[in-house]
Design goal:
alpha+beta; 5 domains; Alpha-Beta Plaits; 21 helices; 5-stranded antiparallel beta sheet; Four Helix Bundle (Hemerythrin (Met), subunit A); 21% strand
């Protein structure tokens, strides 16, 4: 029977990605001087699980790297050698190589074989150097290992072991043959009493052999001796890495010749392995957790394609629109004669709202998805720049819409790199300033109302006001020495703006901050900067929790109804005629509590015939974005409601000043105003402040 293994590939790649990410996180958190044994065991288990899965699918290149990585980790966690920064660096490089190899198998991307060979040599050199230096420092071993008499390596550094197994099922023998076959060259024979014997030639120690065998049986039941000549040995067919053309891929039995099943340990063995010493941790790559008693723990989550989630969200959006239509239709009914119908409609509205919130939460992901990629980047960048940086994350469990999370990665990456490069000073400079040599970089996330606020804070030197103003004047930007600090800091978002004296491969070209601002604004967010010279800088990003549904204010101009995102609305009022003034060459402004704001007639923007051209007869809505305010003139306010956002560009075309559309309760289409675009395009906002 031929089985299509491609259906299982995605599970393996997803599991491997998670294991590699967890491995990197644990490695970066390790205290080299006093590593936590649980963390070392977790890193070892991750490497072993990846190796088992790779061997199952005959990804032999991945198996080779993970085997070397696992062997070195095994010696460290057993106390045979001390963990050093060189080990951590090598493990991180190995993680990068494994990621590259995964991408090669998954997406067909190119693999740098030189990098693979280099990391293999590096891991092997570290392993051999430690074995040669401290053979007597090995941890106590089982009785089976003690039976080995003074092993001596051959010219290639290999040992030859005779491994006699107790009476165990054939599937356990096959599983052990497959695992031990990864250590070197293996042959097998069967004694007269039906006991199986392996002859293994390997550079690994007897402790590694015992650790692998303990997955399946009690190590004390093993009989391991050095050397010895096997009686009529025969090669173990599929015990060594299975060939790529094998339709069983090492886990299923072909029709004629049974092959080994590396992951075929029985449930009892799994249970014993999970509760035994670290060497016996569960190795099934398809299961992530075991409980302390050894029993399996069911997964609390399932993987679902994003397209299915989006389809569900669209259907719920349509349901919300339909419910709004029903609500509008029955609003004209007599509540005395249709009391039960109205009560049922109210119940439907509540259930629809609850369903909508529940479905929207499916797309919400923790910010740890983004935060987890920065510790490694900060570590590497700080080392490259010769700086000492302590990286702290807060609020990693805060959730944000998946679509926004994917789009916020690049802006945050640039801000974090800027903080390490420009913000935090070199150790000697910090010492001269009376600071700790190690700078602190904090990445935090928290909910504030209907928004999420992400902050990148450092305790570096802060922004240099004079240098920024000088550079702005040099580039011809409209600035003045009396500008408030908040406006000066915003200058760094100008295209091509950089105060770096030297252009490096990290920064200095003036490319990036303007893109950061543009991308965040496109997501309906804002960027704010707070900086104190000598104390550091904080850049705060405020984003809506989701782009699929928003709270809006319905406004009417002529016969058209538009939606204003509620997050931009400060207040609405009807101005007095005396508060509206005409400024030559500047258009109209309106006075609101001693502050003059530019007036934007919405009917002029979209060429609509309004009911009222006189602002004192209409309504003005005060809007604020990017720290700037304006007054939007409309005919009337319709109400406040939650709307389902529909993409206008994909269904029609891009329209200036419009960010999307929604369907109203009466079935009509209402356009959602792009407030940031309206205020940016308003010529009044580019004018100098007006004083009366």
């Amino acid at each position: 029977m031929t089985i299509d293994m491609s259906q299982f590939y995605q599970v393996f790649f997803d599991e491997a990605d998670e294991l590699l990410a967890e491995m990197e996180k644990l490695l970066l958190a390790l205290d080299v001087n006093a590593p936590d044994s649980e963390d070392l065991n977790a890193i070892f288990r991750a490497a072993h699980s990846i190796k088992g899965g790779a061997a199952t699918f005959a990804f032999n290149d991945i198996t080779e790297v993970t085997h070397m990585l696992e062997s070195l980790l095994d010696r460290i966690r057993k106390g045979e050698m001390a963990l050093t920064p060189e080990h951590v660096d090598a493990f991180l490089v190995a993680k990068d190589v494994l990621t590259m190899q995964m991408d090669g198998h998954h997406h067909g991307s190119s693999v740098d074989q030189d990098a693979v060979d280099s990391v293999c040599q590096r891991l092997k050199a570290l392993s051999q150097g430690i074995v040669a230096d401290a053979p007597a420092a090995a941890a106590p071993v089982s009785a089976a290992a003690e039976a080995v008499a003074a092993p001596v390596a051959d010219a290639d550094g290999n040992y030859r072991f005779r491994i006699e197994l107790p009476e165990v099922p054939q599937k356990d023998i096959d599983a052990l043959a497959a695992e031990l076959g990864l250590l070197g060259t293996i042959t097998q024979e069967t004694l007269a009493d039906k006991h199986a014997v392996f002859m293994l030639t390997t550079s690994e120690s007897q402790d590694t052999i015992v650790a692998i065998c303990s997955f399946v049986l009690d190590p004390d039941d093993l009989k391991i001796t050095y050397g010895g000549a096997p009686a009529a040995p025969q090669a173990v067919g599929a015990a060594v890495s299975p060939p790529a053309e094998d339709p069983g891929y090492g886990i299923f039995e072909p029709e004629k010749a049974p092959s080994a099943a590396p992951q075929a340990a029985p449930p009892a063995a799994d249970q014993a392995a999970a509760s035994a010493a670290p060497a016996g941790e569960a190795k099934n790559w398809g299961r992530r957790a075991t409980d302390k008693e050894g029993g399996s723990q069911e997964s609390s989550s399932i993987r679902v394609g994003v397209e299915k989630v989006d389809q569900l969200i669209n259907l719920v959006g349509e349901l919300v629109i339909t419910q709004a239509m029903i609500e509008q239709r029955i609003a004209a009914l007599d509540p005395l004669h249709h009391e039960r119908l109205l009560n049922s409609a109210s119940q439907l509205a509540r259930n629809t709202r609850d369903l909508q919130e529940a479905v929207m939460s499916i797309r919400m992901m923790p910010m740890d998805y983004v935060f987890s990629r920065f510790p490694r980047m900060v570590r590497d960048l700080a080392g490259k720049l010769g700086k000492k940086v302590e990286f702290v994350t807060r609020g990693a469990a805060t959730e944000l819409d998946k679509g926004l999370i994917e789009r916020i990665v690049d802006p945050l990456t640039h801000l974090v790199r800027n903080s390490v490069d420009h913000g935090i000073e070199l150790p000697e400079k910090r010492r001269d300033s009376g600071k700790s040599e190690t700078g602190k970089l904090i990445l935090s996330a928290a909910h504030q109302g209907g928004n999420i606020v992400i902050e990148v804070s450092d305790d570096g030197g802060g922004l240099n006001r004079d240098r920024i103003l000088a550079k702005a004047k040099q580039q011809g930007l409209p600035v003045s020495d009396s500008m408030p600090d908040s406006d000066v800091w915003q200058l760094i978002f100008a295209p091509g703006f950089s105060t770096a004296e030297v252009v490096t491969d990290v920064s200095g070209r003036g490319v990036g901050m303007d893109v950061v601002k543009r991308n965040i604004t496109a997501m309906g967010g804002t960027v704010d900067i707070r900086s104190t010279p000598g104390s550091g800088t904080t850049i705060a990003i405020s984003l809506p929790l989701t782009l699929a549904i928003l709270d809006g204010m319905s406004v009417k101009v002529g016969e058209e109804i538009y939606i204003l995102p509620l997050g931009y609305v400060i207040e609405s009022l009807q101005p007095a005629a005396v508060d509206v003034k005409e400024v030559a060459g500047q258009g109209k402004v309106v006075k609101v509590r001693e502050e003059y704001l530019p007036l934007i007639p919405l009917y002029q923007i979209f060429a609509i015939e309004p009911r009222f051209e006189d602002p004192s007869q209409g309504i003005i809505v005060i809007l604020e974005t990017d720290g700037k305010k304006a007054a939007l003139l409309v005919d009337s306010l319709v109400g406040q409601q939650q709307v389902v956002v529909k993409n206008l560009e994909s269904n029609f075309r891009k329209v200036a000043g419009i960010s999307g559309a929604t369907i109203l309760g009466d079935g009509g289409v209402s356009l959602i105003l792009d407030v940031s675009a309206l205020l940016r395009s308003s010529r009044q906002l580019n004018a100098d402040p007006v004083f009366f």
